[in-house]
Amino acid sequence: QVQLVESGGGLVQAGGSLRLSCAASGSIFRINAMGWYRQAPGKQRELVAAVTSGGSTNYADSVKGRFTISRDNAKNTVNLQMNSLKPEDTAVYYCNTKAIVAAPTYRNVEVWGQGTLVTVSS
Predict the structure, then answer these.
(1) What is the 8-class DSSP label of residue 103?
(2) How many CB atoms sit inside 10 A of residue 87's CB?
(3) CA distances from 25 to 39, 63, 89, 107 (A)
(4) Which of 87, 88, 97, 104 is deepest in the core (most CB within 10 A)?
């Protein structure tokens, strides 16, 4: 199994910054991709940013130029640096990974973290 532990959420004023971190653990053979999604009350969960093991990145249009995703493959971690935060960024942010586990056999898995709340005040 794979477990994800998220940290870094909190309360910040508009224009401020936060850094989210997510660490994966378990019987992992390879992490193909890690990313961050967010969900506000009454809204659909949406992709914020993702990065593959090869370093390719993808961002939602609403965060381009403000957020930066990075990863450390050796530590199985992913970070999301969020700058110039807006009230519209307020949501629960979820870490996600698509990985290959090694036991009992090689299998593709998708795992979600429990979420960390980001609140941006005006």
Answers:
(1) S
(2) 11
(3) 24, 28, 28, 16
(4) 97
Q: What region, left, alpha or beta, does residue 89 occupy, with left being phi > 0 and alpha being psi -120 to 50 degrees?
A: alpha
DSSP bridge pairs for 1: none
Q: Which tokens go with 118?
A: 């980001």
Residue located via tokens 């004023």: 13
And the tokens for 26? 């378990």
Cα-based distances in Å from 63 to 7, 43, 104, 108: 20, 17, 39, 29
The Cα 13–Cα 48 span in angstroms is 20
pLDDT of residue 53: 87
Radius of gyration of the chain (CA): 14
Please, are residues 107 and 29 in contact by the beta-carbon 8 Å criterion?
A: no
* Average pLDDT, 10 consecutive residues per value, the chain (122 residues): 94 98 94 97 96 94 98 91 98 97 93 97 94
The C-alpha atoms of residue 61 and residue 40 are separated, in whole angstroms, by 17
Give me the residues paired with residue 80 across strands.
20, 69
Residues in the chain: 122
